[in-house]
Amino acid sequence: MNAIRLSKTVQNLKYSVIREMGQLAQGMPDVINLSIGEPDFPTPPQITTRAFDDAQNGCTHYTPSQGDPELVKKLADILSSKTGLSVTPPMILITHGAMGALTAAFRTLLEPGDEVLLMEPHFPDYLAHIAFARGCAVPVETRFDQGFIPDPNAIEVAVTPRTRIILLNSPNNPTGSIMPADLLDKIADIARRHNLVVISDEVYDRITFTGSPESIYTRPGMDRQTLVVKSFSKTFAMTGWRVGFCYGPEALISQMLKVVNYSTACASSVGQRAAIAALDLDSRIIEQMTTTFEQRVNLVCDRLTAMPGIRLVRPSGSFYVFADIDCIHPDSRKFAISLLNSEQVVVVPGYAFGNSCEGCIRIACTLPRGRLNQAMDRLQRYLMNHGGK
Ligand code: PMP
Question: How far apart are CA 290 and CA 235, in angstroms?
């Protein structure tokens, strides 16, 4: 047989830098892996026990593509009371993680060549989701000295006749920045004037250190042109259960339903039973996890700030710290690999989050404090041995 002909879209995708770093570390003794974007806590047993009971009682079959009706109803009640708007079941779609919602949204909203404005630094996977839908990602850079908060003028300038979507992620992966309320007002204004859909990825909205972040969904009229993407993965330490969801205008959700139907049939039935149990979880358990993340993030920020040549913006949420190491090494990939080989510490090189993020690294505070302290000791030693450009 001749060489297999492959899709250019897929061939042109880069392998995930985050996974690649993990692979490079495989087999190394005593590695401290700070690349993993998932809580290290076990899923709370109250969730696991109830999901297993439900599985034993037969919840192991397809659910409707829209999702387990009990989960959809529960979310409709919670979201309506949280937003103060009427979020009815037909406005909600349960998906295979937030990833399932993102991929269904882009496939439903984009024609080939349509543009998506995304704020950089950004979650690397967005590029693949947009590429699968034959869309065109247009990065809008945010700046270190502005705390990685987007500039609305830069967003406005990037709008073209092909722009269809503004993609927001607050709290942000990798910077942990949260968009302030007045910025959301301004972005809503841009979206309304240019008739753009906003996809608001809010998967870290419960892991915040400065109170509850606001959502663009609640800005006047924005419920008619915003899709909010959420997940059980981070909030409830449930990454492996693969349950996320989105809500937005019924006309959009009803079309996205076809994508979910034909791509995954439905999210995992047992995962959805776990999600129902998660919604009943005592909120103090989530607050405890958030406090733990905050303490870890503070520890890492304090340690990094004391190291010469490292600059950072303290995150307001998430469990990531995004640090500028440009003074030490302008090539983030070489820096990350050299740090791994010398000190067995895994971090994610900044270029994974966009071209403007070269010279930075992402540290995930998803290990206990003792281990994070050890990692910081090793980094400090590395800088002493390799400091300077
Ligand atoms: N959005 C962002 C910003 C993320 O960081 C992630 C996971 N790293 C996701 C979406 C996907 O999450 P899920 O596990 O729910 O698919």
Answer: 9
Q: Are residues 321 and 176 in contact, defined by beta-carbon separation less than 8 angstroms?
A: yes
Q: Whose CA is nearest to atom 12 of ligand 1?
A: 98
Please tell me the number of Cα atoms within 13 Å of 113 on its side-chain side. 3
Are 287 and 262 in contact by the 8 Å Cβ rule? The answer is no
Minimal-distance CA residue to ligand 1 atom 10: 98
Confidence of residue 388 (pLDDT cuts 50, 70, 90): low
In the chain the domains, ranked by start, together with CATH numbers, are: 8-43+284-386 (3.90.1150.10), 61-279 (3.40.640.10)
Find out whether the beta carbon of 118 lies less than 6 Å from any atom of ligand 1: no
Q: Is the CB of 99 under 6 A from ligand 1?
A: yes
Long-range Cβ pairs for the range 382-387 (8 Å, 24+) = 382/338, 382/339, 382/342, 382/343, 382/345, 383/307, 383/308, 383/309, 383/310, 383/328, 385/342, 386/328, 386/329, 386/338, 386/342, 387/308, 387/309, 387/328
pTM: 0.96
Is residue 389 pLDDT above 80, yes or no? no
Atom of ligand 1 nearest to the CA of 169: 3
Whether ligand 1 lies within 6 angstroms of the CB of 98 is answered as: yes
> Per-residue pLDDT tens for 160-209?
999 999 999 999 999 999 999 999 999 999 999 999 999 999 999 999 99
| 326 or 170, which is more confident | 170
More confident residue, 45 or 19: 45
184: CA distance to ligand 1 center in Å?
21
Q: Among 16, 227, 231, 239, say which to mutate for ligand 1: greatest number of ligand atoms within 8 Å of CB.
A: 231
Which residues are CB-contacts of 309 (< 8 A; sequence separation ≥ 6)?
A: 325, 327, 328, 383, 387, 388
CA of 180 to the centre of ligand 1 (A): 21
- pLDDT of residue 376 exceeding 60, the answer is yes
Confidence of residue 37 (pLDDT cuts 50, 70, 90): confident
Tens of pLDDT along 341-356?
999 999 999 999 999 9
